[in-house]
Amino acid sequence: MAAVICGSLAFDTIMTFEGRFADQILPDQLHILNVSFLVPTLRRDFGGCAGNIAYSLNALGGTALPMATLGSDGASYLDDQYRMLFKLANGSLPDKKYFRVGSAFYLDSQVRFHVKKQFEFYVGVNNLLNTQPPRVITGLPGSVTGTETAAGTYDPIGRRFYSGVRLKF
Predict the structure, then answer these.
(1) Helices (H), 25-73
(2) What Rg value do the Cα atoms of the chain yield, rounded?
(3) Domain edges within the chain
(4) How far is CA 113 from the centre of its chain?
(5) Number of C-alpha atoms within 13 angstroms, CB side, residue 14?
(6) Going by DSSP bridges, is the β-strand pair 63-69/2-8 parallel, antiparallel, or unpaired?
(7) Are 136 and 114 in contact (CB under 8 A)?
(8) What is the pTM of this model?
(9) pLDDT, tens digit (0-9, with 9 covering 90-100), for 47-57
């Protein structure tokens, strides 16, 4: 039986301190505690609450289904190494396309006309080429319900025209 693991997926930054904290802190000066430690090694591992629990459950022979949020480094997190943890019910791996969001090129254009110093007229078009955004399945991190894309990054509306005037008094 599979378990759905809710939480976050993140990179854990692990620092190694080769000493004892007790040797660095003076008991009679705790009221003015100010310390810094030399950390000779630093490594980045897969982590986050859902990631750590899912990894441990899979290592114990269970089946974990992480349902998690990702940050801006999510694409690098879900590379081939981590993808191995997401086996489907038939034992196969999900297609890579579900772990990547493609790029999109948008061309916006605007023309401005100044009439004297008080008037400025402008016309323009956003998404001139009517580029369709990459699809992000609704319910996944970054997806806005109903747009099926990361609406904060990509244009879910399509080409649109606008015009306006500015008046300076």
Answers:
(1) 49-59
(2) 26
(3) 2-99, 109-167
(4) 40
(5) 8
(6) parallel
(7) no
(8) 0.41
(9) 788 888 988 89
Strand 41-47 and strand 119-126: pairing?
Answer: unpaired
Q: What angle do CA 59, 60, 65 make, to 5 degrees?
A: 70
Residue 109 burial (CB count, 10 A): 10
Q: What CA–CA distances, in Å, run from 28 to 21, 31, 37, 45, 102?
A: 15, 8, 19, 37, 58
Cβ neighbours, 10 Å, residue 49: 15
Provide the pLDDT for residue 121: 95
CA angle, 134 as apex, 131 and 135 as ends, to 5°?
130
Strand partners, 50: none
pLDDT per position as a tens digit, 32-90: 877 777 778 888 777 788 888 988 898 899 888 888 877 766 666 666 555 666 666 67
Q: How many CB atoms lie within 10 A of CB 83?
A: 15
Using CA atoms, how far apart are residues 133 and 136, in angstroms rounded to an integer?
9
